[in-house]
Amino acid sequence: MHPDREPSWSPPADAGEQPRQVRRILKLFRPYRARLTVVGLLVGAASLVSVATPFLLKEILDVAIPQGRTGLLSLLALGMILSAVLTSVFGVLQTLISTTVGQRVMHDLRTAVYGRLQRMSLAFFTRTRTGEVQSRIANDIGGMQATVTSTATSLVSNFTSVVATVIAMIALDWRLTVVSLLLLPAFVWISRRVGNERKRITTQRQKQMAAMAATVTESLSVSGILLGRTMGRADSLTASFAEESERLVDLEVRSSMAGRWRMAVITIVMAAMPAVIYWTAGMALHLGGPDVSLGTIVAFVSLQQGLFRPAVSLLSTGVQIQSSLALFQRIFEYLDLPIDITERPDPVHLDRIKGEVRFEKVSFRYDDRGAPVLDGIDLTVPAGGSLAVVGPTGAGKSTLGYLVPRLYDVTGGRVTLDGVDVRDLDFDTLARAVGVVSQETYLFHASVADNLRFAKPDATDEELYAAARAAQIHDHIAALPDGYDTVVGERGHRFSGGEKQRLAIARTILRDPPVLILDEATSALDTRTEHAVQQAIDSLSADRTTLTIAHRLSTVRGADQIVVLDSGRVAERGAHEELLARDGRYAALVRKDARPPQASGDPAPLEPTR
């Protein structure tokens, strides 16, 4: 639907440094040290108990059976059964605790990323695809589930098992142990090579998944479907999605097969080791070497087979961890995003807000290299007063309004509320003080009541009805079969543009802010409904400071002050009649707005840009 737009921020040069990443990953588990200690104890106990079984088997073969000691045989057999029971019980408890810890870590990560994104400025979301953000939270963190829930514990468990088994093998016969471990360095080297390869492929795969998620989010939304159908692009979009999916198939296959043959060689060699041990012991006995008992050989092979599973698992776990580092890196990139709009360490809190808004030599640009969107704006809106901002498309009208609630921060000068720089106010004060109704109405896929209560969760039904009446929408809602329980649909598509706009106005009225920012709030209304809503807004604005950004000039005639912006500067200011008498830019805009587009040949007014 749109060309790929990646965030302009890039991670620091050392963001891929593995030691730093590992330290950050370990830090995630720090709050759960006590539980992890219990897991470690269970792992150690399980390893010791499982290693005891081959020694019991040796005693059975070398002592109990040859000497006919049935009592000892029964006791040793019972010990082997008890060992299996304890190992299983310890394993279940270990899995329960480690999985709980892992899920808590994933919860912490999801919450941290979501919280970080909630604090990002509006500019970040204008240059980042929604699907990309969703993919980071869903796919990347979801892909780490195996690592944080079981891989870490598996690593500790397998490592402990390998160490305990090797010690037991040495205790049985150090010479056979040396033979068994000759190829270990080669195995470790192979697993590291495979892990690095998996990590590279995993990074590519997650990027491809993010791209595909973005395509789905954009093209399968209600707006996307409408656009695709009306433009006759449904088949083209399907073909584009198929190409994205085909690339993902290739990456998934490559990820699955990366190093598979090399790991298969390790498996074959380790499976063949018992035959090597039998051959080594037999040849040593034949050549007059040290005598090794049958029980020792069988116990040793049993230990070796016990070593096989955790050793291969340990090598595979190393490969998985390498792959997971790519996912952690993508998550840490979001956690490291610089936050442009922050709350001061000692912010100002206002209990009573009058609503005076001032723009003092305000300048703004979206980036250091871009042209200024606003330049040297000086305006004052008294408490309870009204200011209308008009001008051609791209003049900076919406941006000016968005500086008041700090959706953007000024790059020069300051914006004040009751004499306090809005950058010095705490977020709670700012949220209570300023309400915004934008031209892009957003409604959740929930009931009408839930959408309205998003502004005031504890609002009573009577308060909902009063706000809806003020916005001229109550009668329409009440006439619906489910009334205020009606689900509005994805982005409110079950309602018309005018109805959605009135719901948004009712939602802001319910919040009752002392300062209103109306960014084309009546742009989607027909003339009759616009007049009714404008009456409601006018009556409510009596006790509120109102800043109206308008393209249709019929909505701003009653404003105390009208400002004409042009190329980010104030071109004219004054009351409606005063500006008409000057016969300047405002008067020209009024004449153009009054002419029917068909008669004049002019295009219909465009939506304002930010």
Automatic annotation (TrEMBL):
Matching InterPro entries: AAA+_ATPase, ABC1_TM_dom, ABC1_TM_sf, ABC_transporter-like_ATP-bd, ABC_transporter-like_CS, P-loop_NTPase, Type_1_exporter
Annotated membrane topology: Multi-pass membrane protein
Domain ABC transmembrane type-1: 38-323
Gene3D superfamilies linked to this entry: ABC transporter type 1, transmembrane domain, P-loop containing nucleotide triphosphate hydrolases
Domain of life where this protein originates: Bacteria
Protein's cellular compartments: Cell inner membrane
Gene Ontology molecular function terms on file: ABC-type oligopeptide transporter activity; ATP binding; ATP hydrolysis activity
Location, primary (coarse class): membrane
Pfam families, A to Z: ABC_membrane (PF00664), ABC_tran (PF00005)
Entry keyword annotation includes Chloroplast: no
Regions annotated as coiled coil: none
SMART domains per UniProt: AAA
Keywords, ordered alphabetically: ATP-binding, Cell inner membrane, Cell membrane, Membrane, Nucleotide-binding, Transmembrane, Transmembrane helix, Transport
One biological process term in Gene Ontology: oligopeptide export from mitochondrion
Sequence intervals crossing the membrane: 36-57, 69-97, 162-190, 264-287
CC per GO annotation: plasma membrane
Domain ABC transporter as annotated: residue spans: 357-592
Keyword Cytoplasm: no
CDD domains: ABC_6TM_exporter_like
Family to which this protein belongs: Belongs to the ABC transporter superfamily. Siderophore-Fe(3+) uptake transporter (SIUT) (TC 3.A.1.21) family.
Record-given protein name: ABC transporter ATP-binding protein
Protein species of origin: Streptomyces lasalocidi
Origin organism lineage: Bacteria, Bacillati, Actinomycetota, Actinomycetes, Kitasatosporales
